[in-house]
Amino acid sequence: MSGLRANSIKPKSTPHSVSKQTIKTITATIFALLAFAGNSVLCRLALGENTIDAASFTSIRLLSGIVVLAVILKISQRKSEPGSKGTWLASVMLFLYAVSFSFAYISLDTGTGALILFAVVQITMIFVSLISGNKLHFSEWIGLVIAFSGFFYFVLPSLTSPSLSGFLLMTIAGVAWGLYTLKGRASKDPLSDTAYNFIRTLPFVVILMLVTFQDALITQQGILLAVLSGAIASGIGYVVWYIALSALSVTQAAVVQLFVPIIAAIGGIIFASEIVSLRLVLSSIMILGGMLIVVLGRYYFGQRTLIKNEENG
After folding, report:
1. How many CB atoms lie within 10 A of CB 135?
2. pLDDT confidence of residue 238
3. Residue 107 falls within a domain, yes or no?
4. How far apart are CA 224 and CA 237, in angstroms?
5. Which of 251, 233, 217 is nearest to 68 (CA)?
């Protein structure tokens, strides 16, 4: 999940090069979405089957991401261009997301967790936009009402569907990832910033390990799942997502992310033998549909404003 950014103006290219670029973008987007959903599936498999505890999963996941991103950065970085090095605020948000994400999946199904996470990410970004002084149009408010209604329907009348603790933890993870995403939108060197943001989580990982080592539960399968989550689904997945973003508009990037909970739910059915409830299906339609209305409404009115300004100018 990373920062969204608008397309830059690029020189005209031949039909052949356009076709290659399109294939590259589609491939990168699909891989990134599968990686995001894969994090949910891998975490749920590890914690749902008690192959590892949440703290150890988080620690190994982040450590694996650090190693992979450091290697990729070392290979790709030019000596004459050291690049930017992230921020401590982004690293804190990254760690908070990762640890809340893991503990939430102790009690949440795969699709449920992904739905809460990505919906909260979108809502967080919208509210930050509001606080910054941007106003919502009528269609965007309608979308928010529909999305929040879906959340209330999902949690009520029974606070055990999903568990309240899991819901709250994944909400914290969503807010943290939303803020991390917003922080990354201004990045001029996404790979370097991401790598250094991961590296800066190391002190927090050490503290987490020291505080929880007495209750650690680690198996070979749990370690493997955590490494796959950190090295591939997180480390490589985030890098590939930046590649996709270079050719996706802000609206396209926002819309395609809404497919992640659906992919994660399918993954939970296939790999974790989970059952999708009617409540999850209906609330997913309301939440994702509401977010889609917000994104498309924002794009539509943004285009209208741009055209009007050009006409007046």
Report:
1. 9
2. 79
3. yes
4. 17
5. 233
DSSP 8-state code for residue 261? H
Run means of pLDDT, 10 residues per run, the chain, 313 residues? 44 53 83 91 90 95 94 74 78 95 90 84 79 76 81 61 82 90 74 89 96 90 95 87 72 72 84 78 82 74 67 64
Report the alpha-carbon distance of residue 41 to residue 15 in Å, rounded.
39
Give me the domain span that covers residue 148: 23-307
Rounded Cα distance between 237 and 111, Å, is 19
With respect to residue 6, please indicate whether it lies within any of the assigned structural domains.
Answer: no
pLDDT of residue 12: 46
Tally the domains of the chain.
1
Instruction: Assign 3-state DSSP to the chain and report helix, strand, coil percentages, each to 5.
Output: 75, 0, 20
Cα dihedral: 128, 133, 137, 141 (round 10): 40
Are 65 and 145 a contacting pair, CB within 8 Å? no
pTM: 0.78
Dist CA 183 CA 180 (whole Å): 5
Q: Name every residue whose Cβ is closer than 8 Å to that of residue 114 and which is 6 or more positions away in sequence.
A: 36, 37, 40, 260, 261, 263, 264, 265
